[in-house]
Amino acid sequence: MKGISPLVAAVLLIAVTMTVAGLLAYWAASFVRTSLPAVNETEAQCRFADFKIYSCSYSNATKKLNLILENLKDIELKDLKVFIVYANNTVSDPIHLDGTLTGGALKSFSLSVTEEFKEITVKTHCPELTKTKACSGT
Length: 138
Fold this sequence. Notes:
Structural class: alpha+beta
Helix content: 25-40%
Largest sheet: 4 strands, mixed
Number of domains: 2
Radius of gyration: 29 Å
Strand order of the largest sheet: 5-2-1-8
CATH architecture of the largest domain: Sandwich
Shape: rod-shaped
Oligomer: single chain
């Protein structure tokens, strides 16, 4: 009886090599998946989010704060909150703004503010994304 033919030997070597490569790839993928920390989808989006306080004005006559926010990126900003820093350095409870700020958009908000204040801070659903501005008064 003779040995196996070179063609059969080549096919067997390729099959064994591909099986080992598949097992190694599966092991490596599961190792990386369990070793790396999970990235929150919101956290990943927030890296590319940015906005600015386009304008901020206060009317003493109407006791209204008019605020325009501009979203500078394409990421929708949610959970918009305004904190008012009063003249005595105390900070208001969060004032929740209605709706979201869609990507690339300007949006206007009007708030009732009865006390004298020196600046406002706007926060979003992105923990690191906060803007502060002193408002002009009339």
